[in-house]
Specification:
mainly alpha; 8 helices; 0% strand; globular
Length: 194
Amino acid sequence: MWEYLEWLNGFEYLYLPSQTAILFYLLLAICFYGLRVIVVLKFIYLRWVAEESAKREIHGSKREWSLLTKILFYAMAILVAPLVEEIAFRGPILWFVLGSQYIYAFSACIILSFIFMVCHMIEPRGKYKDGTRIRYAGSALYSTGIGGVFYGLIVVISGSIWPSIFLHMLWNSNILFIILGEERINRYALALQR
């Protein structure tokens, strides 16, 4: 335990690798991103849209944020949160991988993905116009749990935390894609259901 805390405190796992390795990690993250997009659109997305619509009918629309609040939220969600969450949730997995204890790494991947999902469940997301707090929909939590498994697997495969950080940043940037093309995403998700 103390060795792990020393390793975690030393930030050795965050040293940037060579440019070739970074490019490989980015490509690996993009491949996992595409796979996760397909899984989520095929099995989760339409249910999530229906749940969100039902909540909006009951509680009204979401409260509007100021432009500065939106910019700060997107910066935190896309840049800061992936780095912090990956260190906290995938650091132990990497510890087991670097110690060549893959059985523990896979076990930690599942357990930490569940904890990752629970932490997102209690995260505040704003308020509806009637004052009710916005929480993750059930299907969005499944997506988060699946994401945690993907992030853990990419750490096990690569032996580095950087691909999971890149993948998490890519996934969180979906906020912008959804805003810009929600109708196209809905059509694509429907096409995958056939």
